[in-house]
C-alpha cells in the first residue's frame, strides 16, 4: 500500500534507503579505522596497568600487578583486564593485541548504535540512523581513546548493544539479552551500574504506562545482572577484602577541576552538543517508541556526565570518561530527525502534502547545515590530538629499564620499589614487588591519604623500599621527615635507601652476608623465635632482606609461611587485648607479608594502623 503524500519516486527512494544507510555505516566504520591509524596513538601508561594485571593472572599468579606484589584491585575494568590476558594463550604480543582489541570493539560499536532506531520501532534502517556512527568516526576524542589500550572501545560496544537490547526487548516483550549486556557493562567500568540503573528506570516507567506487571522477562534480566555483578562482588571480597575497587579510595581525595573538564568539552564540541540537545527535544515529542529511544539516549549521557562529576574529572586529557558517550550525541541527533519524520508522516496522512514536505526539508537542513561545521571542526582537531599524546607506556617502560638495571647491579632478585607511574614499570619489572605511590594498586597508600603518619609508618616499618620516585602524584612524600631520613637523592626525583650497596643492605638484621647465610630450617626457626619474643620489627626487616636476595627454593614454602603468619596473627591478637597496639600492629604486618599480602590480613592491619595514626586536623 502506498503512503499518502509520497510520490512513486519517493517510494523507490524509501526502498533503497536501508541499503544506502548500510553503506554509510560501513563507510563510518572504515573511516574510524583509518582515523585510528592516522592518530597512531601509543598505548598509554594507565592501559599498561590492566595489561600487567592480565599477564600476572594468566601466568597463574592471581590478580596482582606483578607476581610478587600484593593482591590489590588497582584496576577498575575487570572484564577488559580478563580479555587482555587472552593474549598469552593466543600467543600474541600483549601490547599490539591491546591496541588492536580496543579498536575492534570501538569500531563494532558503530553498527550497534545505528540499530537503536530499528530496535525501538521495529522498522528498517533509515539514513539518520547512520549519524551516531558518522559522528563517532570523525571525532578524535573517540578515535583516540579506543586506540589507547584503555577499555573505552569495549565500554562503547557494550553500551551500544545494551541500549539496542533494552529498546528491542521493551518493544517485543521477549528475550532477556539486556541482562547479560548490562551485566558485562558493569564489569567494564564503574559507571556501568549507573547505565544499568538508567535502563531499569526506563523499563519500569514504560511498563507502568502499559500497566504491565513484572514477568518472566524481567526476572531473567535481573538474574543475569545478579549473577554477573553479584558474582564479581563475591570474587572482589574474597580476593581484595572490599566491595569497591581500590581506585575508588585512591581517587577519592583528588580533584581534577571537573567544572573546567566538562566546560572545555562543551566548548570544543559546541556545535555538536547544541545540535544534540535541540534534536533530543524534537525526539521527545515523537511517538512512544521514539520517546523511549530519546529518553534512553539522554539517560545514558546524563549518567556518564554524572559519573564524571562524581569522579571530579580525570587526570588524563582528551576527555577519556566522555569518549564512550560521543556516539550517543549522534544518536540524539538521529532521534530529532526521526521525530520530524513522524510529524511529517502524521501531517501527510491528513492530506497536508506541502507542510509534510517542508518538515522533511527541515530535517535535511538540520543535519547538513550544522552537520558540516561539526564534521569540519572535529576533523580539524585530529592533527592537534596526534601531536600531543597522553603519557605513553613506552616512555615509562624506558625509565623502568634503568631501574631494573640498578636492581640487578645490587644483586636483588625481587626488589621492593615505590613508584607512581605504574604501568610501564610493572610490565618491565615483573620480578619486583611494587608499592604504588599513586595509590591505585596499593591498599595502604590509598586508605591513608589523609593520614600521613600512617602512610609514613607503613612505608618505613614494612619496607622500606630500596628506590623511590617522588614526583607528580607522589611529590608530597618528600614532606615525610622520618621516611626521607632513610633515603638520599640520586638525581631528579629519585631516591635510594641509605646504606644500600652491592654488598650490604640496611634491612638485613645481622648484615647481608650473615642474614643470607641462614639455611632454610634455621630461617624458619629464627622467624618463629622473633614472633614469640615480640621482635616483629626485626622479623619484618629479615623478611624483606631474604626475599630480595634468596631464590624461591631457599625461602619457606607456602605451608610454612602460612603457619608463621597464623602464629604472628595470634600473637598480635594477644598483644591487642593487652593494650599493646603498636607491637600488635607489627605482628599483623608480618603476618600479612608472610601470607603473600593476603587482603583480609591487610585490611585488619591497616584498620589498626589508622587507629594509631588518625587523620590530622586540617
From TrEMBL:
UniProt keyword Nucleus present: no
Domain FHA: residue ranges: 426-483
Record-linked InterPro entries: FHA_dom (IPR000253)
Transmembrane domains' residue ranges: 20-40, 97-116, 223-244, 265-285, 291-309, 321-340
Record key words, sorted: Membrane, Transmembrane, Transmembrane helix
Top-level taxon of origin: Bacteria
Protein name: FHA domain-containing protein
Amino acid at each position: 500500500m502506498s503512503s499518502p503524500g509520497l510520490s512513486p519516486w519517493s517510494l523507490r527512494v524509501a526502498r533503497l534507503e536501508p541499503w544506502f544507510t548500510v553503506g554509510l555505516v560501513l563507510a563510518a566504520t572504515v573511516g574510524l579505522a583509518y582515523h585510528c591509524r592516522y592518530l597512531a596513538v601509543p598505548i598509554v601508561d594507565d592501559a599498561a596497568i590492566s595489561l600487567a594485571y592480565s599477564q600476572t593472572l594468566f601466568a597463574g599468579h592471581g590478580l596482582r600487578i606483578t607476581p610478587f606484589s600484593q593482591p590489590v584491585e588497582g584496576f577498575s575494568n575487570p572484564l577488559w583486564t580478563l580479555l587482555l590476558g587472552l593474549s598469552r594463550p593466543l600467543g600474541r604480543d600483549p601490547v599490539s593485541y591491546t591496541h588492536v582489541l580496543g579498536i575492534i570493539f570501538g569500531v563494532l560499536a558503530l553498527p550497534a548504535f545505528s540499530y537503536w532506531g530499528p530496535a525501538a520501532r521495529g522498522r528498517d534502517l533509515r539514513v539518520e540512523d547512520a549519524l551516531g556512527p558518522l559522528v563517532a568516526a570523525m571525532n578524535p576524542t573517540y578515535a583516540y581513546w579506543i586506540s589507547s589500550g584503555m577499555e573505552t572501545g569495549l565500554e562503547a560496544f557494550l553500551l551500544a548493544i545494551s541500549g539496542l537490547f533494552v529498546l528491542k526487548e521493551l518493544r517485543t516483550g521477549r528475550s532477556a539479552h539486556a541482562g547479560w549486556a548490562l551485566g558485562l557493562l558493569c564489569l567494564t567500568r564503574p559507571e556501568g551500574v549507573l547505565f544499568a540503573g538508567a535502563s531499569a528506570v526506563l523499563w519500569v516507567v514504560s511498563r507502568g504506562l502499559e500497566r504491565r506487571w513484572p514477568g518472566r522477562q524481567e526476572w531473567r534480566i535481573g538474574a543475569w545482572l545478579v549473577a554477573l555483578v553479584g558474582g564479581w562482588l563475591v570474587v572482589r571480597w574474597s580476593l581484595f577484602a572490599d566491595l569497591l575497587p581500590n581506585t575508588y579510595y585512591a581517587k577519592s581525595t583528588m580533584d581534577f577541576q571537573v567544572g573546567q573538564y566538562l566546560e572545555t568539552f562543551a566548548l570544543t564540541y559546541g556545535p555538536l552538543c547544541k545540535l544534540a540537545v535541540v534534536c533530543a527535544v524534537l525526539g521527545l515529542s515523537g511517538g512512544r517508541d521514539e520517546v523511549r529511544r530519546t529518553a534512553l539516549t539522554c539517560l545514558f549521557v546524563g549518567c556518564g556526565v554524572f559519573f564524571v562529576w562524581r569522579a571530579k574529572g580525570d587526570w588524563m586529557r582528551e576527555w577519556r570518561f566522555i569518549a564512550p558517550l560521543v556516539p550517543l550525541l549522534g544518536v540524539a541527533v538521529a532521534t530529532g530527525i526521526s521525530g520530524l519524520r513522524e510529524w511529517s508522516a502524521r501531517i501527510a496522512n491528513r492530506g497536508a502534502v506541502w507542510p509534510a514536505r517542508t518538515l522533511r526539508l527541515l530535517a535535511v537542513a538540520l543535519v547538513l547545515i550544522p552537520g558540516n561545521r561539526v564534521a569540519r571542526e572535529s576533523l580539524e582537531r585530529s592533527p592537534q590530538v596526534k601531536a600531543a599524546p597522553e603519557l605513553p607506556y613506552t616512555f615509562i617502560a624506558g625509565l623502568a629499564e634503568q631501574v631494573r638495571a640498578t636492581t640487578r647491579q645490587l644483586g636483588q632478585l625481587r626488589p621492593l620499589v615505590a613508584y607512581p607511574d605504574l604501568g610501564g614499570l610493572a610490565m618491565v619489572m615483573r620480578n619486583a614487588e611494587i608499592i604504588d605511590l599513586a595509590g591505585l594498586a596499593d591498599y595502604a597508600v590509598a586508605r591513608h591519604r589523609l593520614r600521613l603518619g600512617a602512610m609514613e609508618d607503613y612505608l618505613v616499618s614494612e619496607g622500606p623500599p630500596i628506590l623511590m620516585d617522588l614526583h607528580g602524584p607522589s611529590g608530597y612524600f618528600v614532606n615525610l621527615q622520618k621516611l626521607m631520613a632513610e633515603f638520599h637523592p640520586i638525581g631528579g626525583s629519585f631516591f635510594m635507601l641509605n646504606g644500600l650497596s652491592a654488598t650490604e643492605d640496611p634491612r638485613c638484621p645481622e648484615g647481608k652476608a650473615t642474614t643470607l647465610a641462614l639455611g632454610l630450617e634455621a630461617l624458619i626457626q629464627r622467624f618463629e623465635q622473633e614472633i614469640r619474643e615480640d621482635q616483629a620489627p626485626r622479623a619484618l626487616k629479615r623478611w624483606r632482606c631474604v626475599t630480595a636476595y634468596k631464590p624461591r627454593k631457599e625461602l619457606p614454602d607456602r605451608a610454612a609461611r602460612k603457619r608463621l603468619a597464623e602464629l604472628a596473627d595470634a600473637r598480635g591478637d594477644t598483644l591487642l587485648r593487652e593494650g599493646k597496639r603498636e607491637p600488635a600492629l607489627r605482628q599483623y604486618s608480618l603476618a600479612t607479608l608472610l601470607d603473600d599480602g593476603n587482603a583480609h590480613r591487610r585490611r585488619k592491619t591497616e584498620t589498626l594502623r589508622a587507629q594509631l595514626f588518625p587523620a590530622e586536623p586540617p
